[in-house]
Amino acid sequence: MMSSSEDAAVSELARRILRSNGLTIIHNGELSEQIEQLSFELSDRAPKIVFGIKGQINSSNKIIFENKNTGDGMISISPPNSLEIVWIKGGLNVWEKLRQKIIELGAAGYPGCVGCAGPAASEPWDEEYSRNEIL
């Protein structure tokens, strides 16, 4: 079970991904099929969302999300140096929670819907506060 601060970080990264014009997920190779499935499921459940999702393999245990035109994110054990990156502490176990949140928000109509992403979606993200809560 995720803490509320972890859940908030997962939601923030999902919103950033859905607002982007494209996404590259850098991973160690274990997510290749799941990234492809995410792309198909998102297009099936939220056909109005059109952007490319591509995977890039590296040797790190981090999962890095590079979004075009929105802030980036990372799932890892240690936080990134930049507070511009949404950090979610964890590993592959968190990936599934993020994937589900992306699909859930996309199917609800985010980012084109009003209020479907909850009240936190309209507030500015405070990465420093989030990291202090997680650590």
Span between termini = 16 Å
Helix percentage: 40-55%
| Major sheet size, sense and barrel closure | 5 strands, mixed
Q: What's the number of helices?
A: 4
Low-pLDDT stretches are: none
**Dominant shape:** globular
Q: Count the strands?
A: 5
The radius of gyration is 14 Å
Features:
4 helices; 19% strand; globular; 41% helix; 135 residues; alpha/beta; single chain; five-stranded mixed β-sheet
Can I get a quick summary?
The protein has one domain.
Can you walk me through this structure?
It is a single chain. This protein is of the alpha/beta class and about 140 residues long. It has one domain. It contains four helices and five strands. A hairpin with a 5-residue loop joins strand 3 and strand 4. Helix 1 (about 5-20) crosses helix 3, helix 1 (about 5-20) packs antiparallel against helix 4 (about 125-135) and helix 2 (about 30-45) runs parallel beside helix 3 (about 90-110). The radius of gyration is 14 Å and the shape is globular. The relative contact order is 0.23. The model has no long low-confidence stretch (mean pLDDT about 90).
What's the structural blueprint in terms of helices and strands?
Layout: H1 4-19, E1 22-27, H2 32-45, E2 52-57, E3 63-67, E4 73-76, E5 86-89, H3 92-108, H4 127-134
Parallel strand pairs: 1-2, 4-5
Antiparallel strand pairs: 1-3, 3-4
